[in-house]
Amino acid sequence: xxxxxxxxxxxxxxxxxxxxxxxxxxxxxxxxxxxxxxxxxxxxxxxxxxxxxxxxxxxxxxxxxxxxxxxxxxxxxxxxxxxxxxxxxxxxxxxxxxxxxxxxxxxxxxxxxxxxxxxxxxxxxxxxxxxxxxxxxxxxxxxxx
Length: 145
Hints:
Layout (H helix, E strand, L loop, with lengths): L6 H9 L6 E6 L5 H9 L3 E7 L2 H9 L2 H5 L3 E5 L14 E6 L10 H14 E10 L4 E4 L6
Parallel strand pairs: 1-2, 1-4, 2-3, 4-5
Antiparallel strand pairs: 5-6
């Protein structure tokens, strides 16, 4: 599997405010290319990548054995509007979503449910960043907290 990210995804990864011990939630990870790159860039920290597609998660897991063995990356099949953390799972510092239909404005009901779920899994200062800015834009979550 190619480890080469597109320029667009590389720009997005470069724009993320990565720091030590960061916890990242990637929404709509597809085959896991961006998740793998992020897990390589965080020296200490953790990334949970979710996708509603079982097939996408299977592909992501298959291509990410090394990163998963390092303990910094895991995948979960989940629709963002139904996302729940496990009982003792820690909150995330940032959530990032690229080309996620539930957050692109076309499905307002799903979007509202998704934003409520995202706000619940982020720390109080946690940020939701999506594509469509330069290269990212922050979606304010105050009304959902």
